[in-house]
TrEMBL record:
Domain GS catalytic: 184-619
Domain of life, per lineage: Bacteria
Protein name as annotated: Glutamine synthetase III
SMART domains (UniProt xref): Gln-synt_C
Protein family (similarity comment): Belongs to the glutamine synthetase family.
Residue span, GS beta-grasp domain: 85-179
Pfam families: Gln-synt_C, Gln-synt_C-ter, GSIII_N
Source organism: Spirosoma soli
Coiled-coil regions listed: none
Length: 729
C-alpha cells in the first residue's frame, strides 16, 4: 500500500467530525448580523439619507453623491467596528465565479500619516481591469478600463478572510468603458425591471392598488462532498471538476437508501458550520438533506427577491467551499462529477409577488382573482412555449451537457408540467369558456391509523422529470446546472415573460378599444394563447424514450449539444426580444454567445488534456507494469511444466494488450482532433468540433480504462476508486 491512493485513504479514514460551536443566541438575534441591512441603515443614517436610499432601492432610482458619502461613512464605521480592514466591490463577471479586489480603509496624507478613508466615490464606483475578464470581443486587450458600480438593492456584507480580519463586500454591477454589461447582474436587473413594468401593467386590469411586481426565487443547491485527501489524489477532480474515469462500484444508488438518510457526522458538522455563517450573512438557508446519490446533498433557502437570491446563492457556494476546507472536505458543484449516478442541479423556484402581498401564481377561489391567476399562468406557459429554445440556451454548458437526460435529470426537451387539475381547468377554458380553479383544493388522506393525524393531499402531484413544473404557487425550473450562476436563466425567464405580458396587454388593449367587455376579452385571448401553446404541456415521465418520440411528433426541440443550444442566443428573434425589452443590446448578446462558446471549448479541452494525461501516464503505465508481473508469473508456470495453468494468465495478458492499444490509438486520435479544432479560427465551428470530433473519443477511452480497472490488481491501481470517493466519509 505504498501508492498515493492508499496514503490518501489512510488520511481520509482517520478523520473525525470537527466540533462546531453553535451561537448562544437565537437565530433571530444573529441573522443578518454581518450585513449592512435595513436595520443597520436606519440606526446609522440620518432620516433623510435613509429615506432616499430606501426610495432608490424601491423605485430603481439614483442616489446622489452627498447621500453616498454619508452611506460610505456609515458603512466604514459599521464594518471597522466588526473587524473589517478592507473593502471591495463584489461582482459577478462572466467567468462564472465571483470577483473582488480588496482595498484598505486608509490613505496616506501628504505628511506621511495614515488616516481612515472611505468616501462615497469609492462606494459608488471602482475600476477593475475590464480586458482581463471575458468580454466576447467588446474590448481590445490593450483597452483596460471598466467600472464596477454599487447595487444598493443588495445589502453589503462582511466576509471573514480566514486568517484574520474581515472585508466589507459591496455587491456591484460591472460594465465596460463604453457602457456594455460585462457581468450577470446588469442584464438581470434590467430583466427584473422589465418584468415589473409589464406585470404591473397587467395587474392594473384587476387591481389598481398594485403598483409593483417583484419576481422571487428560491434556488435549491445540490452538491457532492468528498474527503479533501481523496480529492487531491484524483487529478481529474482537481483540474476538471469531474471524474474522467471510474468503474461503477458494486453498490451505487440502486438501494435508494441514501436519500433523506442519516447525515454522516463529518458532513453534518460541515453543514451546521456553513449554515451558521450563512445566517450571519442574511442568507435564509432552511433545509439540508441527503440527496439520491451517495455522497450527494442539498441545501435550500427560503425564497427572496431574484437579484438578492442570486447574490446569496453565489455567496453561499463560495462560503461552502471555504467552510469545507476547515472540515478537510471538498465540495463538488460540477453537474456530473460521477458517471452512472445522479448529477447535481440548481432547482430554481420562481414566482411573482405584488406590493399588496399577492402571489400572482397562487390559485384563488374568487372569480376575479382566479381570472388574474389564469392570466399570468397562461402567459407564462405561452412565454416558455414560444421561447423554449432560448430557455434551453440559458442552461447550456459543458457540465450540464453530461447531466441532462441522465439518471433522473430533466431531459434537454423543454416541457411544462401543470398537473391534472390545472390542465383540466385550462381545457375547460378552451372548450367551454369557463373555468373553476379552487385555492387549496385539497383532500385528506384517510390512513386508518388513529395515532397519525390526517394528512392533506395537494390538488396536484409533483413531477420531478419535468424541466419546468408548476408546484402549487410557483414554477420550479429543475434543469439549471448546479455550478451555474442562475442569473443566466433568470435573465431569460423574466425577459420572455415580460415580453409575453407586453404582447398580452397590446392584444387586450386592442379589443378594449373596439368596445369588448374586459373579462370576455381576457378569456378569449387566454383561450387562443392556450390553444397555440398547449403542446408543450406534458404530465408523464420525462425520462422515458416514449416522451422523446412524442416530443418529436409534437414538434418540440431536443437540443442536446451545448454549442447548438447557445446558437439560439444570436438568432434574429432572440436578439430582437432582448432589445425590445431593454435587457441587452445586440453587441452584449453576441459577446455572451462568444464567451459561452469559449468557455465550453476550454472546459472540453481541459477534460481532453486530463484524459490523455491520465490514460497514458497513469493508467497505461500501471497496466503495463501489472502485465509484466503477470508475464513473469506465466513464464514461471511454463518453466515448471504447468502450461495449462498459464493459459488463463495469458488470456489476461492479451486483454490488457488489446485495451492498452485501444487506449493509445484513441488518445492519439483525440489529440489530433483537438489540434484540428484548435486550428479553426471561427469560434462556432471550433466549438462544434470539440462537441463532436474531440468529445466523441471520451466514452471510448473511458470504457477501455474502466475495464482495465477491473483487471489490474487493486493494490496497483493509481486512481482513487468510486467506492472510496463516494462512501469514505
Amino acid at each position: 500500500m505504498s501508492n498515493f491512493r492508499f496514503k490518501a485513504l489512510e488520511i481520509a479514514q482517520s478523520r473525525q467530525a470537527i466540533p462546531v460551536v453553535a451561537p448562544v443566541e437565537r437565530v433571530g438575534d444573529f441573522f443578518g448580523s454581518n450585513t449592512f441591512n435595513n436595520e443597520v441603515m436606519r440606526a446609522l443614517l440620518s432620516p433623510e439619507a435613509y429615506l432616499k436610499v430606501t426610495e432608490a432601492i424601491q423605485t430603481n432610482g439614483q442616489i446622489d453623491r452627498a447621500i453616498a458619502d454619508e452611506v460610505a461613512g456609515a458603512m466604514k464605521s459599521w464594518a471597522t467596528s466588526k473587524g473589517a480592514t478592507h473593502y471591495t466591490h463584489w461582482f459577478q463577471p462572466l467567468t462564472g465565479e465571483t470577483a473582488e479586489k480588496h482595498d484598505a480603509f486608509f490613505d496616506i496624507t501628504i505628511d506621511g500619516k495614515a488616516i481612515e478613508k472611505f468616501k462615497g466615490s469609492a462606494l459608488v464606483q471602482q475600476e477593475p481591469d475590464a480586458s482581463s475578464f471575458p468580454n466576447g470581443g467588446l474590448r481590445n486587450t490593450f483597452e483596460a478600463r471598466g467600472y464596477t458600480g454599487w447595487d444598493p438593492s443588495s445589502p453589503a456584507f462582511l466576509m471573514d478572510n480566514g486568517a484574520g480580519g474581515k472585508t466589507l463586500c459591496i455587491p456591484s454591477v460591472f460594465i465596460s468603458y463604453t457602457g456594455e454589461a460585462l457581468d450577470y447582474k446588469t442584464p438581470l436587473l434590467k430583466a427584473l425591471n422589465a418584468l415589473d413594468k409589464a406585470a404591473t401593467a397587467v395587474c392594473q386590469y384587476f387591481d389598481r392598488s398594485i403598483t409593483k411586481v417583484t419576481p422571487t426565487l428560491g434556488p435549491e443547491q445540490e452538491y457532492f462532498v468528498v474527503d479533501r485527501a481523496l480529492f487531491y489524489a484524483r487529478p481529474d477532480l482537481v483540474l476538471a471538476g469531474r471524474t474522467i474515469f471510474g468503474h461503477q462500484p458494486a453498490r451505487g444508488q440502486q438501494l435508494e437508501d441514501h436519500y433523506f438518510g442519516s447525515i454522516p457526522p463529518r458532513i453534518n458538522a460541515f453543514m451546521v458550520d456553513f449554515e451558521f455563517e450563512s445566517m450571519k450573512l442574511g442568507m435564509p438557508v432552511r433545509t439540508r438533506h441527503n440527496e439520491v446519490a451517495p455522497g450527494q446533498f442539498e441545501v435550500a433557502p427560503t425564497f427572496e427577491e431574484v437579484n438578492l437570491a442570486i447574490d446569496h446563492n453565489a455567496l453561499l457556494m463560495d462560503l461552502m467551499e471555504k467552510i469545507a476546507e476547515k472540515h478537510n472536505l471538498k465540495v463538488l458543484f460540477h453537474e456530473k462529477p460521477f458517471a452512472g449516478i445522479n448529477g447535481s442541479g440548481k432547482h430554481n423556484n420562481w414566482s411573482m409577488g405584488t406590493n399588496t402581498g399577492v402571489n400572482l401564481l397562487a390559485p384563488s377561489t374568487r372569480p376575479k382573482e382566479s381570472l388574474r391567476f389564469l392570466t399570468f399562468l397562461v402567459n407564462v406557459v405561452k412565454a416558455v412555449h414560444d421561447n423554449a429554445d432560448l430557455l434551453r440556451a440559458s442552461i447550456a454548458s459543458a457540465g450540464n451537457e453530461h447531466r441532462l437526460g441522465a439518471n433522473e435529470a430533466p431531459p434537454a426537451i423543454v416541457s411544462v408540467f401543470l398537473g391534472e387539475t390545472l390542465t383540466q381547468a385550462l381545457n375547460d377554458l378552451e372548450t367551454k369558456s369557463e373555468v373553476t380553479v379552487n385555492k387549496g383544493d385539497n383532500v385528506y388522506y384517510k390512513l386508518g391509523l388513529n395515532r397519525i393525524p390526517s394528512l392533506m393531499r395537494d390538488n396536484t402531484d409533483r413531477n420531478r422529470t419535468s424541466p419546468f413544473a408548476f408546484t402549487g404557487n410557483k414554477f420550479e425550473f429543475r434543469a439549471v446546472g448546479s455550478s451555474a450562476n442562475s442569473a443566466s436563466t433568470m435573465i431569460v425567464l423574466n425577459g420572455i415573460v415580460a415580453d409575453q405580458l407586453n404582447k398580452f396587454k397590446t392584444d387586450l388593449d386592442g379589443r378594449l378599444a373596439r368596445g369588448e367587455k374586459k373579462e370576455l376579452a381576457i378569456v378569449d385571448i387566454l383561450k387562443e394563447y392556450y390553444a397555440n401553446s398547449k403542446r408543450i404541456l406534458f404530465e408523464g415521465n420525462g425520462y422515458s424514450d416514449e416522451w422523446v418520440e412524442e416530443a418529436a411528433r409534437r414538434g418540440l426541440s431536443n437540443i442536446k449539444s451545448s454549442p447548438e443550444a447557445l446558437g439560439v442566443y444570436v438568432q434574429p428573434e432572440s436578439l430582437a426580444l432582448f432589445e425590445r425589452t431593454g435587457i441587452m443590446n445586440h453587441a452584449e448578446v453576441e459577446s455572451r454567445y462568444e464567451i459561452e462558446l469559449e468557455k465550453y471549448i476550454k472546459n472540453v479541452q481541459i477534460e481532453s488534456r486530463v484524459m490523455g494525461d491520465l490514460a497514458m501516464n497513469h493508467v497505461v503505465s500501471t497496466a503495463l507494469k501489472y502485465q509484466n508481473k503477470l508475464a513473469e508469473t506465466a513464464r514461471n508456470l511454463v518453466e515448471l511444466g504447468m502450461t495449462a495453468e498459464a493459459e488463463p494468465i495469458k488470456d489476461i495478458l492479451r486483454e490488457i494488450s488489446t485495451r492498452v492499444m485501444a487506449i493509445k490509438r484513441q488518445t492519439e486520435s483525440m489529440i489530433e482532433a483537438r489540434k484540428k479544432a484548435n486550428n479553426v479560427t471561427d469560434t462556432t465551428e471550433r466549438a462544434k468540433l470539440y462537441a463532436t470530433e474531440v468529445k466523441d473519443h471520451f466514452d471510448i477511452i473511458r470504457y477501455e480504462v474502466d475495464k482495465l480497472e477491473q483487471i489490474v490488481d487493486d493494490e496497483d491501481w493509481p486512481l482513487v476508486k468510486y467506492r472510496e470517493l463516494l462512501f469514505v466519509k
